[in-house]
Design goal:
This protein is mainly alpha-helical. 77% of the residues lie in helices and 0% in strands. α4 packs antiparallel against α5. The longest helix has 28 residues.
């Protein structure tokens, strides 16, 4: 069980990105373009929200505040929000726009990544919740802007 939590907390984000990239390769041209535009917008907005949120709220990591052993070495800095969970959720939102079913699977994996980071004493639940909220908000902005940009670019 320890190795599963370690993998999910540390390395699963790489697999999520690779699977999303492989999925992207299977899409028709217009969906590929929409996927990329949506992903860039959601990613940039998500990055801004994560940075602003982290600057506005400080949450000591559990391994520091509760004198626990983290599942892997991590900086004793602000745990809010979880970058891994935010990125996985932005990817999930991006996939969801093209495929609801696959997007829900990606959401499940994003939540599993967040849970593993809590179980591994790297983050607290508020760090995960903040990440998910920021990523979903970023997805909402991308959902609004993507069709406008595609229309402007005549795609």
């Amino acid at each position: 069980m320890h190795y599963i939590i370690l993998f999910m907390a540390k390395d699963a984000i790489i697999v999520v990105g690779l699977i999303a990239a492989i999925y992207w390769l299977t899409l028709p041209k217009k969906d590929k373009i929409r996927f990329v535009i949506f992903g860039i917008i959601a990613g940039l907005v998500g990055l801004v929200l994560v940075k602003v949120g982290g600057a506005m709220f400080y949450d000591t990591r559990p391994f520091v505040s509760h004198n626990l052993i983290p599942i892997y070495p991590s900086a004793a800095d602000n745990g809010f929000p979880s970058d891994h969970t935010a990125l996985a959720t932005v990817i999930a939102v991006t996939v969801y726009v093209i495929s609801k079913r696959l997007g829900l699977v990606f959401f499940g994996v994003a939540l599993a990544i967040g849970l593993a980071r809590v179980l591994g004493n790297i983050h607290s639940p508020i760090d995960i919740l903040g990440s998910v909220i920021f990523a979903v908000l970023a997805g909402a902005v991308a959902y609004y802007l993507t069709p406008k940009l595609m229309e402007k670019l005549k795609i």
